[in-house]
Amino acid sequence: xxxxxFCNQDMSAEGTIxxxxxxxxxxxxxxxxxxxPYNPNYGDENQTCHDCNIKRGGNHHPGCDMEGCPKCxxxxxVVQLWKGVPQLISCGHLDIECTECGDVVESxxxxxxxxxxxxxxxxxx
Length: 125
Ligand SMILES: [Zn+2]
Ligand SMILES: [Zn+2]
Ligand SMILES: [Zn+2]
Ligand SMILES: [Zn+2]
Description:
Elements: E1 24-26, E2 32-34, H1 70-76, E3 96-97, E4 104-105, H2 116-124
Antiparallel strand pairs: 1-2, 3-4
This protein binds zinc ion (4 copies).
One zinc ion binds next to helix 1.
């Protein structure tokens, strides 16, 4: 059992229709876009997401590996989710770049603006 931090529902529960806490995606650059719903081009109307169990037409729980990136979808004219739309967790749009060196900051804390190396250096100064 895993509880989603965004909607407080059990992500492994059958019958969850949508993540009520994932109406929009907030990007590190401050922009917000409407989340892409799960709408695969296979299965029937009761098709559920194999990763986070929400139903067709619903929004994924954030972090689901089936969730498409709305920013990429804007760029590529691809409206249909997941055929051609890069995954939100891996496309890089959610990555925070270190303000010192530009490396990706490995942190869940959106206030963290430095990578580990630069944060250590800043501490030692
Ligand atoms: Zn999902
Ligand atoms: Zn959720
Ligand atoms: Zn993207
Ligand atoms: Zn850095």
